[in-house]
Each structure stands twice: as C-alpha cells, then as structure tokens.
Design a protein that fits this description.
Elements lengths: L1 E9 L5 E10 L4 E5 L6 H8 L7 E6 L2 E2 L4 H7 E4 L12 H6 L7 H14 L15 H13 L5 E5 L7 H16 L3 E5 L11 E6 L2 E7 L7 H6 L6 H11 L11 H13 L1
Parallel strand pairs: 3-8, 3-9, 6-7, 7-8
Antiparallel strand pairs: 1-2, 1-4, 4-5, 9-10
Helix pairs in contact: 4-5, 5-6
Length: about 270
C-alpha cells in the first residue's frame, strides 16, 4: 500500500503545488490521477518514485517511510514517462533493459528481460534496433525495462499521450493484463478514456484530492467531472447525453459492445 500523508510541495521558484495532500493506493488496484495541466500530477509521480525529494509530510510504501529508506523504494516503484524517446539510452533492446539490472547474473538478466518483453508483447523485437520501432513499441519497451526490475508499484505518467490510437489500445490491453498479474498501477492522465481503465479516479485540484470516484460510481458522479472541468470518457459522455434526452442506459462495463447492445434493446423496446 502507498500512503501519502500531509504532503506539501513547492519548487524553488514556484508557488505551492501540493497542499497538505492525502491519499492512499491499495494493492492490486489501478488508480487514475487526473487534473488540469500544471495541477501537480507529475510532481506526485516524481515524489512517490523518489525523483523529487519530499520536503513536508510523509510517503509510506508498504509502511516504510521513503525518506528513510530510498534503496527499498527504488526496487518497489517503477515510473514510465510520456515520451519514450527521452528515456532511451541504448539502441539495442537487450542493452537498454540490462542497463538497470547490473548486479544480477547473466542468466537472471536474460530471464528477466525475456519475461518483461513477453508482458508487453515485444519479445519478437529483442534483436531489433530500438530506434527503428514505432513510438508505441518504444513505450512498450520502456514499460518492459521497468518490469524487469520486478517492481510492485508502477507509475505511468501520461503513458500514451504521444501514441496513435492503435498503439494506445495495445498499451491499455497491457495495463489491464498487468493488473491481472497483481501489479498496482497509478496512471497519471489527461486522456478521459484512460479513466475507464481505473478502479478509482482521483481528481487533483489546488494541491489536494478534490474528489474520488470509483469505477462503479462513474455514471452517478458525472456532474463531479463537469464541476472540475475534467473531460468525460466518450462512452460516459454519450450515456449522459442520452439521459438528458430521456434514454436511460444501464451498463456494467463501459465498452462499445455493451453500449450498442443496451441501446438496441431500448430502441426495440
Ligand atoms: N522543475 C520545476 N521548477 C519549477 N516549477 C516547476 C518545475 N516542474 C514543474 N513545475 C511547475 O509545477 C506545477 C505542477 O507541475 P506538474 O508537472 O506536476 O503538473 P502536471 O499536472 O503534471 O501538468 P501536465 O498536465 O501539464 O503534465 C506547474 O505549474 C509547473 O509549471
Ligand atoms: Mg504532467
């Protein structure tokens, strides 16, 4: 479990970014963090992963205070950023992933690389030049690089912001599979549709969690998204507009198939 307790943060020259922030991430869940540009989402990711140093408040990862045990933290949390091209060091995929596994035996490194590439469906690319891959494929290798270090918590900071729609879908599938394998995932996002991946969505405003919405409350809490000017996932937007026109749709999973099936029933009925 990750606990953020009374965390406040400002950059040297900035105003207060996080203001007595409190929230918790439970094991095995996907949590989306949304909020306007500049609201401090990436700052939260960097604090949890230890890239930025905490100045006030506490972050506990599995009950360990990260300011007291940075080494443990390094192994438990992996972070992937928006632009894979800023993170690539080597053109060879093996070298790229092996770079962060330096203290392990050759056999262990090979095993980890193979397993990690399998999880992102990129094992076929092992001998390819990283620079020749598409952005989506490069991002999948960046996720594999994190996975090879065997983290428990994965922070994805706008992982698909630069990637085309097919590439996005592939990464969504990978995120869902990682959850099934037991990883705990924080997905920082500006893309409404990524909210649908999450068990819970936290809305960040004025350096605090202004609202928290679980997946099964999405329909009832549409007004909260509007209040905080967070764009609704397309399917929810459609359902909300239909509701305004007197058509009530009740579906368990917000996907196109279910929407079409429910709409067809209500049209025929
Ligand atoms: N190194 C820095 N020095 C000074 N100010 C910074 C620094 N990094 C970020 N900021 C400021 O802190 C605020 C929060 O930045 P952050 O990157 O966490 O926001 P964000 O919610 O991730 O935004 P976006 O949606 O654009 O990615 C912004 O106003 C930003 O300009
Ligand atoms: Mg950001």
């Amino acid at each position: 479990m990750i606990k953020i307790e009374n965390v406040s943060f400002k950059y040297k020259e900035s105003e207060m970014i996080l203001n007595n922030l409190n929230f918790q991430i439970n094991e095995g869940e996907i949590v989306a963090i949304v909020g306007k540009n500049g609201s401090g989402k990436s700052t939260i990711g960097k604090l949890i992963s230890g890239i930025l140093k905490l100045k006030s408040g506490k972050i506990l990862i599995d009950d360990i205070d990260i300011s007291k045990n940075a080494k443990d933290l390094n192994q438990k949390v992996g972070i992937v950023f928006q632009n894979p091209e800023n993170q690539i060091i080597f053109s060879n995929i093996y070298d790229e992933i092996a770079f962060s596994l330096q203290n392990l035996s050759k056999e262990e490194i090979e095993k980890r690389i193979e397993e990690a590439l399998k999880k992102v469906d990129m094992l076929d690319a092992l001998n390819k030049d990283l620079y020749t891959l598409s952005l989506g494929q490069k991002q999948r290798v960046m996720i594999a690089e994190i996975l090879a270090r065997n983290p428990k918590y994965i922070i994805l900071d706008e992982p698909t912001a630069m990637i085309d729609s097919l590439g996005k879908e592939k990464i969504y599938e990978i995120i869902k599979n990682l959850k099934k394998q037991g990883y705990t995932i924080i997905c920082i996002t500006n893309l409404a549709d990524e909210i649908l991946l999450a068990d819970r969505t936290l809305i960040l405003k004025n350096g605090q969690i202004a609202s928290e919405i679980s997946k099964n409350e999405l329909l009832q809490k549409i007004d909260i998204f509007k209040k905080y000017e967070i764009k609704l996932p397309t399917i929810l937007e459609i359902i909300a507009r239909l509701k305004e026109n007197g058509i009530n749709i009740d579906i368990e999973d917000y996907n196109l198939e279910q929407l079409v099936s429910s709409l067809s029933k209500s049209c025929k009925g």
